[in-house]
Write a structure and sequence with these properties.
Elements: H1 22-26, E1 42-48, E2 54-60, H2 62-65, E3 70-75, E4 110-111, E5 117-123, H3 126-134, E6 137-142, H4 149-153, E7 167-176, H5 181-188, E8 191-202, E9 211-216, E10 223-227, H6 232-243, E11 250-253, H7 269-281, E12 285-288, H8 291-297, E13 301-312, E14 318-330, H9 340-345, E15 357-366, H10 380-398, H11 402-409, E16 418-419, E17 425-426, H12 431-442, H13 444-454, E18 461-471, H14 479-484, E19 493-499, E20 505-509, H15 518-530, E21 537-540, H16 558-585, E22 592-595, E23 598-601, E24 604-610, H17 611-620, E25 632-638, E26 647-657, E27 663-673, H18 680-699, E28 730-734, H19 752-769, H20 783-796, H21 799-802, E29 813-817, E30 823-827
Parallel strand pairs: 1-12, 10-11, 14-15, 20-21, 27-28
Antiparallel strand pairs: 1-5, 2-4, 2-6, 3-5, 7-15, 8-13, 9-10, 9-12, 13-14, 16-17, 18-26, 19-20, 19-25, 22-23, 23-24, 26-27, 29-30
The chain binds pterin cytosine dinucleotide (MCN).
């Protein structure tokens, strides 16, 4: 691996330019919200509910109010006049979706999760505010908790009285070429599988917890909100609406942000409280989240029960898919809570050809737990997990190698652009190539051969190899398609490219990086376009006073939407510069070529003008073509014609100790295809981080609640974020299938690793144990969970297969469904590819 310092201009895209963001981060110079010196700021602290579900009988704040340093204490009732609207949910997925009114402090006399805000204290120091919280006396009448999704759906305790039910919505996506095609396909199928998977809740655990400072201007009503957010622009709109402040009086700034992974894609109670209270007291009000508060009061991810059924023909080619999903919304709907399962709803067929026989239905339910919302991948890792795990079950049933089964089903390269059963057009792909490259890097055949000799009768260290192929479906645009899904915002992005008089360039982007390296990437795009050094380019972002319009960073959208907008703005700049150059060179604009940062008259290489000269000319405006505006600047708002469709194959090799249940990841190979890579170093970093988050879901992480609705994993002592020593060395390869829908040929990559990883790991664990009769191991596959799965399988294993030893996909008992839907059981040893 080589890294380079700033390379010469016009050869920048595709190089491993070091991230310009890193020196400030590595030296501690970067300023995060909590670091900002804000003189005279008051501090906010919240008294939070210790109960998952309770009625508030009384609140006594008198002792707290009398404590030193305390300026004011507010209940929800005290602040009722501060809100022009409830907290926003931007994704009302169905017309009849239930959405309980949700305010920053419990306002309807009830609390609905441990951590729900009840009382706000404002004090002169953080310590004084937190001490006062301890003195607040709230009398509660505890009510039953609802933490089991299926029980919650039965409404044995109703969380929001006014709704009369815990069911939030049912959303269906049934596509059948002809009526009843799904049922008919299942009846006619040679093979079916029916599996249930649980996507455990996860805590996003960004390195920087949330932090907020609201600073009112002394006159005129303007207010600046500093927040550790991924969405300064959306936050500006939403806080203006919720607080009833004219939008032009709200400025949102996201200083350095230490990660978000979706959890900072939200409008939080504390942001609204800081703003409301700073206006009330006419002084800045700030709040810094503790790690435990982060666990309880920042949104959680995943939380789904997935029932998936596949129908396949004799060869294992998919003929229909049926999915029944239950989505855990948590106690309230946050910004995009209800939309998360939908994003996955389109992906349960993965990268496979499927006739129009798809039946997806999601029922979402309120529970007495922290609200869920977007977490890296948001619906797409869940969907990929289900189809990729189910494909392995199908492979087992068929006695076919899992990689071979995937190859039989891949959408062929020649079919691209491919119109899927859903009507969505997948723009490009070569799944077989990615799988072949992954298999080569993993020495797939070699590992399968080793597995045969290692996994013999009585072996306690069993080898497993897991494959997962995925689509990411990112970019989350065009806006019209988002509208058809009832999403309240668009999918466009803005960019301004401004060439200053001295030919230094300012790029203003509507994206809001919080670890993704946009400053580096965008400067590389502009460097290549304008033929100047990346060092001469500044990228401005995440301050709505500087970049007023934008839709921020999530959904791996920033490059395929925002980065492409930057390239388009460069084109506009070049067009304008060309008119000036033609005028100066007394040439026809059509005869000019732009390369290496200069315009040259075709056929007359001596007649040339560098961009620097044009920039100065545009500034002085002394000799511009008639009617041309001075200055060299262009703005673009880009709404892409399609989603972005990155894909790839991940392969994981594990060794499972059957005595202890411990899983040792021996090898991890990822071959991702995100089209043209702007900066392979950044891409690798993104994929590394993503894989570790997927691997963490597979093996380590889980937000555990007890029956009373208490979060048992609210510190990093209980919630197992893997350390570097827990993670294997990752082998990354890539293929490059440029996107035909944008001029850079790029696709997003920010979530790819997470989407591919969890099923690859669990497929490997199950593969290691399938010879012992294990068909599934729930996530996280902790030693205890794995050990339990082995022992349960041992208890239920029929005696004729109990001693069967494997190349794990041969010799296993196969369930075969014949034409009429009859089930018979037979042993098969056909088809194991290795
Ligand atoms: N890139 C590239 N070439 C490509 C694709 C991407 O060079 N073909 C580069 C881009 O230029 C950009 C980076 O990779 O610098 C990520 O680009 P993109 O895939 O567009 O994703 P976003 O910038 O929109 O980032 C969002 C994505 C998401 S959804 C989550 S969640 C996530 C992630 O990014 N959260 C992160 N990566 C994260 N990384 C860090 N450090 N912290 C987070 O919270």
């Amino acid at each position: 691996m080589t890294v380079t310092e700033a390379p010469p201009a016009a050869a920048v895209i595709g190089t491993r330019l070091l991230r310009r963001e890193d020196p400030a981060l590595l030296t501690g110079e970067a300023r995060f919200t909590a670091d900002l010196p804000i003189p005279g700021a008051l501090h906010l602290a919240l008294a939070r509910s210790p109960y998952a579900h309770a009625r508030i009988i009384s609140i006594d704040t008198s002792a707290a109010a009398a404590m030193p340093g305390v300026v004011a204490v507010y209940t929800g009732a005290d602040l009722a006049d501060s809100w022009a609207a409830p907290m926003p949910c931007a994704w009302p997925v169905t017309e009849d979706m239930k959405n309980p009114a949700h305010y920053p402090l419990a306002a309807n006399g009830k609390v609905a999760y441990v951590g729900d805000g009840v009382v706000a204290v404002v004090a002169t120091s953080e310590t004084a505010a937190r001490d006062a919280v301890e003195a607040i006396d709230v009398e509660y009448e505890p009510l039953p908790a609802a933490i089991d999704l299926e029980e919650a759906l039965a409404d044995s305790t109703v969380i929001h009285d006014e709704l009369g039910t815990n069911k939030c919505y049912t959303w269906a996506l049934k596509v059948e070429g002809e009526d009843g095609a799904v049922d008919r396909a299942f009846k006619a199928a040679a093979h079916t599988v029916s599996e249930r998977y649980v996507q455990q809740r996860l805590l996003p655990m960004a390195m920087e917890p949330r932090a907020i400072a609201a600073v009112p201007q002394p006159f005129g009503g303007d207010i600046t909100l500093y927040s550790a957010t991924q969405i300064p622009h959306i936050l500006k709109v939403m806080t203006a609406i919720t607080l009833g402040i004219p939008e032009h009086q709200v400025r949102v700034v996201a200083p350095a942000v230490g990660g978000g992974f979706g959890s900072k894609l939200n409008v939080y109670a504390e942001e609204l409280l800081c703003m409301a209270l700073s206006r009330k007291h006419n002084v800045p009000v700030r709040w810094n989240e503790t790690r435990s508060e982060n666990a309880q009061a920042t949104v959680h991810g995943r939380g789904q029960i997935q029932n998936i059924e596949l129908a396949a023909d004799e060869q294992g080619k998919l003929t229909a898919i049926r999915i029944r999903l239950i989505g855990d919304m948590g106690a309230y709907l946050q910004l995009v809570t209800p939309g998360v399962p939908l994003l996955g709803g389109f992906l349960y067929a993965g990268v496979y050809e499927l006739p129009a026989a798809y039946d997806f239905e999601c029922t979402s339910v309120f529970t007495t737990m922290t609200p869920t919302d977007a977490y890296r991948g948001a619906g797409r890792p869940e969907a990929t997990y289900a189809i990729e795990r189910a494909m392995d079950s199908l492979a087992t049933d068929l006695g076919v190698d899992p990689l071979e089964l995937r190859r039989r089903n891949f959408i062929p390269k020649e079919s691209y652009p491919y119109t899927a059963w859903s009507g969505l057009v997948y723009d490009s792909g070569d799944h077989d190539l990615a799988a072949t490259e992954a298999a080569r890097l993993a020495d797939y055949d070699g590992v399968r051969a080793r597995q045969k000799t290692q996994n013999v009768e009585g072996a306690t260290k069993r080898l497993g190899i897991g494959v997962s192929s995925y689509f990411e479906m990112c970019g989350l645009a065009p806006s019209r398609v988002l509208a058809s899904l009832n999403y309240s915002a668009g999918g466009w992005e803005t960019a301004t490219v401004r060439v200053l008089p001295t030919c230094k360039v300012q790029v203003v982007t509507g994206t809001a990086p919080h670890g993704q390296g946009h400053e580096t990437s965008w400067s590389m795009i502009v460097a290549d376009k304008l033929g100047i050094s990346p060092d001469d380019i500044d990228v401005l972002h995440s301050d709505t006073a500087i970049a007023p319009m934008g839709l921020d960073t999530y959904g791996s959208r920033s490059l395929p939407v925002g980065g492409v907008a930057v390239a388009m703005a460069c084109d506009k700049v070049i067009d304008k510069a060309k008119q000036i150059a033609a005028h100066q060179l007394e040439a026809n604009a059509d005869d000019l070529e732009f390369a290496g940062g200069a315009f040259t008259v075709q056929g007359s290489p001596d007649k040339s003008l560098p961009l620097a000269a044009i920039a100065f000319e545009a500034f002085t405006a002394h000799n511009l073509p008639d009617g041309l505006e001075p200055n060299l600047e262009a703005q673009v708002t880009y709404d892409p014609p399609n989603f972005s469709w990155p894909f790839g194959t991940h392969i994981c090799v594990v060794e499972v100790d059957t005595d202890t249940g411990a899983v040792d990841v021996l090898q991890y190979v990822a071959v991702d295809d995100c089209g043209v890579q702007i900066n392979p170093l950044i891409v690798e970093g993104q994929v590394h981080g993503g894989i570790v988050q997927g691997l963490a879901q597979a093996l380590f992480e889980e937000a555990v609640y007890d029956h009373d609705g208490n979060l048992k994993t609210s510190t990093l002592a209980e919630y197992l974020v893997p350390a570097a020593s827990d993670v294997p060395s990752l082998t990354l390869g890539h293929t490059e299938t440029p996107s035909p829908t944008n001029q850079l040929g790029v696709k997003g990559v920010g979530e790819a690793g997470t989407i591919g990883a969890a099923p690859a790991v669990i497929n490997a664990v199950v593969d290691a144990l399938s010879g012992l009769g294990v068909r599934d191991v729930p996530m996280p596959a902790s030693p205890f969970t794995v050990w339990t799965a082995i022992h349960k399988a041992g208890e239920s294993r029929p005696s004729d297969t109990a001693g069967t030893e494997v190349g794990d996909h041969e010799g296993v008992t196969a369930r075969t469904t014949t034409g009429g839907g009859d089930e018979s059981t037979s042993n098969t040893d056909e088809g194991a590819a290795s």
